[in-house]
Amino acid sequence: MNRVIGSEIIREIELSQMKSNLPAIHPGDTVKVFAKIIEGGKERIQAYEGTVIKRRGSGVGETITVRRTFQGVGVERTFPLHSPRIDRIDVMREGDVRRAKLYYLRERQGKATRIKEKERRVVK
Amino acid sequence: MLGLIGRKLGMTQVFDPQGQVVPVSVIQAGPCTVTQIKTMASEGYNALQIGFGDSKTKHLTKGQQGHLEKAGKLLRTLREFRFEGVEGYQIGQELKADLFTEGQLVDVIGTSIGKGFAGMMKRHHSGRGPMAHGSKFHRHPGSIGAGTTPGRVYKGASMPGHLGNERTTVRRLQVIRVDVEKNVMLIKGAIPGAEGGLILIRPAVKVGK
């Protein structure tokens, strides 16, 4: 049994759990995450909107961290992209940023946290 | 209790019914073949010898080939499991991953990754001295005992030396999934050894609590 066969079996296990309908999400984008929440035995969907400040991992383990300011307090939530608890993710606005991890947003407030919107390339 | 011989394939993660992430080790568990049945009458103890992995005639001695003839298969690894009630098995019988069920607790035995000659900090988790401010005491072992009394270093004092590459058992790991068709098992948590390493899986010896 070599490494290659093992990695194929693992890839199969991972692929069977992965979602194929995820939109393209990049750091700087404003997204709305619809997370399923179990509350008192009932399941409901809660939306969480904010800026993607990082995307890490690969395969089933891939996650995004979404930051928003709520009542003057910065809140960051990390979502596993392929989790069954995530109903869907909508990209509300594509941001134009020059780095992969937007940790600098943590030191900024209000107007300084604005991100330029990405110019859509016009397809002729 | 009867267990299986297998190989560690690697690690990944799965989602449980609640949607929580569970870290799992992926194991190729069997198929194993019964090669010898040891009984109280003939060997003085009850045990089942099982084999795993394909081999070739050129890799086996004539003695090994003769031993495996009854099982009807050339096997690479042979291991023994001692337990009562070996009479129900036959030589040549195939053992599959369905020996284990989902949710069961198992022990996994393997050879830990070799770390070579390791210092006190890595091998015994001792503390470190200051790295700056004129200190020349960085990763050293420090004191290994008292002075004139007792006048010697006690046996068993922790010191630098070889770390890893030894038989290691991780007890009470939960079986998350069993794929009988492929003989693949997912076990919660980390198991000893590198990917591709030989491991033994057996039902947990200490259950309860």
The secondary-structure element order of chain A is: HEEEEE
Name of the CATH architecture of chain A: Roll
End-to-end Cα distance of chain B: 20 Å
* Proportion of helical residues of chain A: 10-25%
In percent, how much strand structure appears in the residues of chain B? 35-45%
Q: How many DSSP-defined strands of chain B?
A: 12
Estimated structural class of chain B: mainly beta
What count of helical segments of chain B does DSSP give?
Answer: 2
**For the terminal residues of chain A, how far apart are their CA atoms?**
52 Å
Q: What's the CATH C level of chain A?
A: Mainly Beta
Radius of gyration of chain A: 17 Å
Describe the structure in your own words:
The complex is a heterodimer of chains A (124) and B (209). By secondary structure, chain A is mainly β. Chain A has one domain: SH3 type barrels, CATH 2.30.30.790. Chain A contains 1 helix and 5 strands; from the N terminus they run H-E-E-E-E-E. Chain A has one helix at 3-15; strands spanning 30-39, 42-56, 63-70, 73-80, 86-93. A 5-stranded antiparallel β-sheet of chain A has the order 4-3-2-1-5, with no helix packed on it. In chain A, a hairpin with a 2-residue loop joins strand 1 and strand 2 (42-56). The longest helix of chain A has 13 residues, at 3-15. The model of chain A has no long low-confidence stretch (mean pLDDT 87). By secondary structure, chain B is mainly beta. Helix content of chain B is 6%, strand content 40%. Chain B is built from 2 helices and 12 strands. In chain B, a hairpin with a 4-residue loop joins strand 10 (167-179) and strand 11. Chain B is globular. The chains are: A mainly beta (124), B mainly beta (209). The interface between A and B is medium-sized, with 21 and 18 residues.
